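Thread: "does anyone have the structure for this chain?"

Original post by V.I.:
We have the sequence but no experimental structure in hand. Need at least a predicted one for the grant figures.
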Amino acid sequence: DVQLQASGGGLVQPGGSLRLSCVGSGFTVATSPMKWSRQAPGKGLEVISTISNVGATNYADAVKGRFTISKDNAKNTLYLQMDNLKPEDTAMYYCSYFRFRGQGTQVTVSS
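Reply from O.Q.:
Generated one for you, tokens below.
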């Protein structure tokens, strides 16, 4: 069975950093297209970053230059490094692989 386990969220002050992790099972992260999405309270799901099966990356304008998506092939894990966090980054963050989505990890940016 395909499973995705996200972690790494928390409460951070504006300007701070967090690294989200998403451990995959039942498939190979290294050769799979994956993405990070987020949903803020009262808003729809927003795709913020994607990484292709060959490692090509894309970012939404809202996070470009601040967030970095990557993979650790040995750990079968997808990451999202988030720097210079802003209050508007507050949301539930999800990793996904095609139609499969993890349970989400909450990120709150507040002073």
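V.I.: this helps a lot. The first strand starts at residue 3 and ends at 7.
O.Q.: and The radius of gyration is 13 Å.
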